[in-house]
Amino acid sequence: xxxxxxxxxxxxxxxxxxxxxxxxxxxxxxxxxxxxxxxxxxxxxxxxxxxxxxxxxxxxxxxxxxxxxxxxxxxxxxxxxxxxxxxxxxxxxxxxxxxxxxxxxxxxxxxxxxxxxxxxxxxxxxxxxxxxxxxxxxxxxxxxxxxxxxxxxxxxxxxxxxxxxxxxxxxxxxxxxxxxxxxxxxxxxxxxxxxxxxx
Length: 199
Hints:
This protein is mostly beta strands and 199 residues long. Helix content is 11%, strand content 42%.
């Protein structure tokens, strides 16, 4: 009987895992492993920030970046199995010390460029820290979202969850924003995401 239950459990896990594997993974990194960085022509002096993972919405994968070895708690990566429909996601983290972190909005990596899926992001809100122009609606003279660092190949368009502007990114072409965080104050990030899938 125990063997039968074990087999049923393994089959269920395989089905769930297979379903998740078919969905492209959007990604947001919280990068605290920065000391001095140039943002929009200004040099920012930053103390490196260590962080703990917090709560995750169902299906969201959160992890430390193990490839940073002893600094792995200074960069957290969150991945979202998304579809071609807009969906709202949330995750949280808690800084261990005061400092500044970078919110990096992208897609998951892939071996081949053609496999690097593009994703639409919109309507960021944050509790526990401040984000500016989280809905991307305020743009500069070049039509790029104000307050964000935007790669030249990022698409800024009208395929928005609400309003008239959203951004389309992938692993290599990202948008960034720096945030100030405080030790022990949990930060919750919420946004809307969908995959740019041609049916």
